[in-house]
Amino acid sequence: MASAKLLDLLNRAIAGELQAIIQYMWQHVQWKGVEHYSVSEGFKETAIGEMKHAEKIAERLWYLGAKPTTQPAPIFVGNTLKEMIEFDVKAELEAINLYKEIMEVAQKEGDVATKEIFEEIEEDEEEHHDFFTSLLEK
To answer: I want to staple 99 with a disulfide (CB 3.0 to 4.6 A). Which of 7, 26, 45, 122 is the partner?
Structure first.
């Protein structure tokens, strides 16, 4: 059985994924201007990726006997493209750090499946972080 700490971390992960889904979706919808065409699809694809992460985490949490949260973490859309991307870089870094903590706790508890799920998700989050940081450099 998973510890209360691990279950809490998993629900924090879902809240973060829900936040990212909404944040990136709204950025995709709201951003206009010349950069819209080159950036908009990236926001949309990233939001869809985050949706898949949330589902995977929720399924694992449910399997472990806990109820997944439906409340997202605070959402920060931003007003300019630069501000949007800065919020996104921050969200991805927070996710990466949280997922490393989840992997450590899962490892200590002998929960190999949860650790492997988060290794895969964390790799995606690093790709998202790379996408957003490369946009800031342009």
So the answer is: 122
